[in-house]
Fold each of these.
Amino acid sequence: MTPLQLGLSDLRVTPICLGTMTFGEQVDADGAHAILDRALARGINFLDTAEMYSVPPRRETFGATETILGQWFAKRPEVRRQVVLATKVAGPSRNMDWIRGGARDLRPEHIIQACEDSLRRLQTDVIDLYQIHWPNRNAPAFGALYHDPSKDAEQTSIEAQLRAMETLVKAGKVRHVGLSNETPWGLMAFLREAERHGLPRVQTVQNPYALTNRVVDNGLDEVMHKESVSLLAYSPLAFGGLTGKYDGPGFDPAQPELGRIARFDSMRKQRWARPEALTAARRYNALARAHGLSPVQMALAFCYRNWRVASTIIGVTSVAQLDECLDAWSVPLSPELLAEIDKLRWEMRDPAQ
């Protein structure tokens, strides 16, 4: 697995990234450390987390994932310099009043303090990639389909956000910056402001990318390709929908081992659990099986080999799941199968958008 360059930065990462948002909720510290050890042993050098994690977000588990990672680094001090560490500052409040008192604006001082807090929890002196988790403005994200100008409000400007990032970069606390859940306009605006004022350039965008959500293909891919910004693809298995575990009827909360959608009521209200999204997932899962593949193999191989994707973020709850995801790296998809995948997308579009 050859490391690749992120954007125009000096960061070189494996094309598979270990996402950690299950740590602290579905996975305890010992289990998380075992997963991290296994990922490292299998050659993964890229870890992604966020101040908001674990997921689903709760007051009681805010910062828990970063804390677990910090404990791992403390036990294995030589490991920190072997991995590229990414984390995120939460955007304006999404009904989470435990984050900055539910502030509706992500101010420069919030960015700087959040970074300091993440560094403390992570027990490190530098974050390799510091990302804004979602836009600090009225923008469609997390399943919203349309931009509604009537909801626009005065927010901290993109220039001011970048100047806060510049402060952190100059202090040696952040190496490079990125965005998440961003739109084509948002990415171009950040790039424009960085170039105009000599501020840190966005190197990555972390957005959903899965068979049931290929919104990236509708314009953001062109921007990222032409502007040399790397896509970090999250939820490639559509919160478990593309594993086949939800191919049966309904969800049984008495079977939390099925995954987040079964275990947490709040997860069943998200885009990945929409009836049309699960119907589409079942169609893709059946297509995988018809070609002699498991749903996991096809869904991950689609992301792993896609020219748009720099690194695919996988989230797991066990070492066995990690191995299954990593083993899919060697799975090829024929041109005929890719054509059938595109045919299904033409029919169903992006139901988990």
Note: The mean pLDDT is 95.
Amino acid sequence: MKRPIVITISLLLAAALCAAGTVAYLTFLRPADHPPADACATPATGPRVVAAGASMTQGSLGADWVASLRASFPTYEFVNAGNNGDTTADLLNRVDTDIVACRPAAVTLLIGTNDVRNGVPLDEYRANLRAIVDRVKGGTGARVALMSLPPLGEDLNAPINRTLTGYNAAIRDLAARTGSDYLALHERMADILRHGTRTPYGFSFPLAFAVAAQHYLLSRTWDEIARAGGRELLVDHVHLTDRGGALVTELAGGWLTGIMGT
């Protein structure tokens, strides 16, 4: 009797490890769809738009709004230059290879959530973001849009969101100073989150993994997962639900329509 039990347990453990490895790869390790390394080495197939940022742009944990834009603008080429965990310092280190080298017609920047979470000083954040924008504008003829940062957790009065206010003010100011366009993502989300009781910030990597497992193994939508946790726009207090992603798609799509005339 013991041997069948041992075999069964071993198979169950192997299956669990395989499932965990699959979730980890799909969520944290796989590259973005149509990343700069693939896109920038070839001529553009249409007006090229680079979406640069961190995990909210990469779209493997939470809604993939870049893919939604790709579906909405089939004659454009969208390069996903999102990279999990990036700060402004990380994006600055790869701005030449992942943005400038792509020769884009338009660039969206959604970067800074990890700066806030990691306690990067506001002056350092502002300087890094300015250097990114200056490098993009100096190295390309692209139009640039800076997006304000979504809340962290859905309680707008939480301490971390009071800290976030300064970073969003820096983004808005920098857009004005550099002649970039400003996309009011935080403001759109805040209009929704002001109504009703909201959950405070409580992100953790175990929660992110659990959320991803429900999506990739159980085929639950990001909205369904968030609702089960009492959230609406942020599936794990940081990354976007389907509804949250739709707000980004709408803002970025409206901007592209306005500047490209299509």
Note: The mean pLDDT is 93.
Amino acid sequence: MDTTDTTPASQKKSFSTVFLIELWERFGFYGMQVLIVYFMIQQLGFADDRANLVWGACAALIYVSPAIGGWIGDKVLGTRRTMLAGAFVLALGYACMSVPTINTWFLFSALGVIVVGNGLFKSNAGNLVRKIFEGDDSKIDSAFTIYYMAVNVGAAASQLFTPWVKNYVNDVYGHGYGWHAAFAVCCFGLLLGLTNYLVMRHTMRHIGSEPDRHPADPRKIALVALGGLAAVAVSAAILQYENLARAFVLLAGLTVLVIFWILIGRGDRRERAGLMAALILVVQTVFFFVFYQQMSSSLALFALRNVDWNFAIFGTHLWTWSPGQFQALNPLWIMVLSPPLAWLYTKAGQHGRDLHIAAKFALGFVFVAVGFFTYSSAAWLAVNGKVTSWIMVWGYGFSSLGELLVSGLGLAMIARYVPARMSGFMMGAYFVSSGVSQYLGGLVANIASVPKGVTEPTRTLSIYTDLFFELGVTGVICTLIAFAVLPWMKRLGRIHAGEA
């Protein structure tokens, strides 16, 4: 009797291996993200505006870097090797941040290491999932849904845990050691992921790109290492100098627009229609990520200064969070909302009533706007400058639903409207566009920069709520524009499908 594993079992084992290393990688990344703005302000003495811009520029670099890392995985080192190298480099970056003697340049260099590690890891981990189920389209959607859950499980766990570690170690040992202990936890998460991969590596031997099938070339490894060192130096310089960061973001944005312009000009009628539709949705996604970036900047500082960290119902105290832990509400809501939303998509599709993807984007902006109006209601509900933590719960709930309708469908939009021969390249352009908007989100967060020395909640409250109200109004404007272009989007869709 044949007792060898069936192909589906082999797929499950291979997918589990990538799923787990992705979970631990996201644990490390979001554990760092939840603390980084607080660290720069509270430990290094940065003003609000500088901390917001540094993190905005770093987020931009983090989103741009996978476009290069994906090419290295496909053409140079191999998808599997590049992903592992990325995980190791990320662990090194978090280890650098755990050094207690950290200063500004050392911090920027450590963040540069994280940028490089993310670039090597992110696109290649996702590419391995695609390769595992290649030729089995019926399972790809399901696999990526579960894979997205790995992102949110890792994010929620670390965003709840690392702030607690920081507070506990600071309380027991003092001297700010808690920050570095929390960053060390991020490093430990990556090491766990790497260890797990090494134990399960036999499940991945048949998965990878063409370079993975050949012995590693020491010269290529050396060239990638040298390029990585150069990228760390460039990233540190971009984070240090504001004008350089702005020039980088402007160049990246112009590059994406030029690429779209060239491709639209060269395509046939159907391709032009699809690319024009994709460009419109990419622009809408850029606006969405400006809103999204507030979670780790203006909303994080609002939670620090103007939110009562105690959860209570009818006067009964339930539990207390630290301000950083409120960011965990985003992945927690994503996990709650994803299954019913997927069910609604399926039921609507079965009855021929599925909404056009552009309509889903427009609805996404509706919920984003409601989320920011919820935050801004603190202006009327606060007592002595402090607002109930439930405002954050419901605000994050609406914002997360908006995220699922916009960001969650972004890559599906590229797959739907972009010709197959351009899909890999355009995926990179999509991430670059998202990176540009991360920096723009930092600029927007600076509208709510609190002057140094101002600590009274009654004085900081209106600074934040005014911004949140303005963002809510902006969300309404984005909604109106998205619905206004919907007929055009439908027409472009029909041309792309060859129906007009």
Note: The CA atoms of residues 275 and 435 lie 20 Å apart.
